[in-house]
Amino acid sequence: MTKVFMQISRLFLGVVFLVAGLNGYFVIFGLEPFIATSPEAMALFKFEYLLIVEKSLEIICGILLLINLFIPLAIAILSPIIANIFLLHLFHDHSLLLLAIMLIITYSYLLYYYRNNFKSILEKKTSR
């Protein structure tokens, strides 16, 4: 059962970030996004390069999650992005708070599932 929930979490996050990243490129190129964007989130990206970097990372991580490669790397890269999404929707724009909570839950499960990959980061001293 845990492996099934891990696969569902991985695929859910992969689809969400791939679609959100592609949607962000519609905004970057001045096209009408195919999914509504948060005006508060877009206001944070006064410098277009920030939006390009974040949306590129979302697309890359979404693809990695969908094809089941480098999952711990994708989890690590998505950590600050997911935290920012959650805090933005918690404090500024409540319209997508449910999605942000779902992201936190599925992300937390993946982080727990792959926790052994991150244990060495939390060591006080290295083994060298």
Structure report:
By secondary structure, this protein is mainly α. It has five helices and no strands. The model has no long low-confidence stretch (mean pLDDT 90).
Question: How are the secondary structure elements laid out?
Answer:
Layout: H1 2-28, H2 39-43, H3 48-67, H4 71-91, H5 97-113
Helix pairs in contact: 1-3, 1-5, 3-4, 4-5
Notable traits:
5 helices, 0% strand, 128 residues, globular
Query: Which sequence of SSEs, written as H and E, runs from N to C?
Result: HHHHH
Radius of gyration: 16 Å
Mean pLDDT: 90
Strand percentage lies at under 5%
What distance lies between the first and last C-alpha atoms, to the nearest angstrom? 38 Å
Query: Structural class, from helix and strand content?
Result: mainly alpha
Strands, total number: 0
Number of helices in the DSSP assignment: 5
User: Major sheet, described briefly?
Assistant: none
Low-pLDDT stretches: none
Which of globular, elongated, flat, extended, rod-shaped describes the shape? Answer: globular
Indicate the percent of residues in helices.
over 70%
